[in-house]
Amino acid sequence: MGTIALAHRGRDTVVTTDEAADTDLVAAIRRGEDTAFEELFRRYQQRVTGYVARMVGCREQAEEIAQEAFISALRRLRETDQPIAFKAWIYGIARNGAIDHLRARSRRAPEVGYDQVEAFVAPAGPMASPAPEAAMETKQSLADLQGAFGSLSDTHHQILVMRELEGLSYDQLGERMEMSRSQVESTLFRARRRLEEEHSELVSGERCRRVQALILRGNTTMGVRDSARVELHLSHCHPCRRTAARETLTTAAAA
User: Fold this and answer.
1) Fold that domain 1-107 belongs to in CATH
2) Which residues touch 147 (CB under 8 Å, ≥6 apart)?
3) pTM beyond cutoff 0.70
4) ∠ CA 134-135-140 to the nearest 5 degrees?
5) How far apart are CA 21 and CA 3, in angstroms?
6) Which fold is adopted by the domain 150-203?
7) d(CA 196, CA 200)
8) Domain with CATH 1.10.10.10 in the chain
9) What is the pLDDT of residues 105-120, one digit of tens each?
């Protein structure tokens, strides 16, 4: 059970998340308290999933749509200070997600044969290779995704691989990871949220700016945790690796 600090009549009061009103939890989220959002997720996830399942007719798809709705809600909460009635708001986000899913399903293209797929993914002729700019963008996108995955904990990495790549159901994930269904739901949500945060830092350049600042400060001022983060980032980021190499040469020349 988590606790959050609430401003109450001119003084700070610490209460459990279970006791907090939705509006208090929203305010805590905007202060950066992750446990507050996890409490909102715990309160509404099952009800929102059931609501979506009635719309789309599939529990498994509803779970995915509901998780995406909560991740979207967290991102939007941090982008605005506008007052929000969370319960109605999260239902609205989930409803829109369900409608988008139904629309996509209704216009889904018919299946194509193997020959057609092969021709599409492997075009022939002088236009087969992408333009250099497009190739560089694709390479960087893959590097960012690789870096985001590499920053996850072993548990989060494992559950995302099994869910997104292997396609395991929630029940299968529970069996494989020895978790209850509710533990699978909350762990998968945290993993997706963490992956999005890591990826956003990389795409925005914020991670590169932080790492390059650490590099320029030098190894003597870097702790074990910072050193590990820098090493991990350098394993997939070519620009920062070049910065590190230049700094090493400069330091060696000055010695």
Assistant:
1) Rna Polymerase Sigma Factor; Chain: A (1.10.1740)
2) 198, 202, 207, 232, 233, 235, 236, 237
3) no
4) 100
5) 13
6) Arc Repressor Mutant, subunit A (1.10.10)
7) 6
8) 150-203
9) 776 544 444 343 343 3
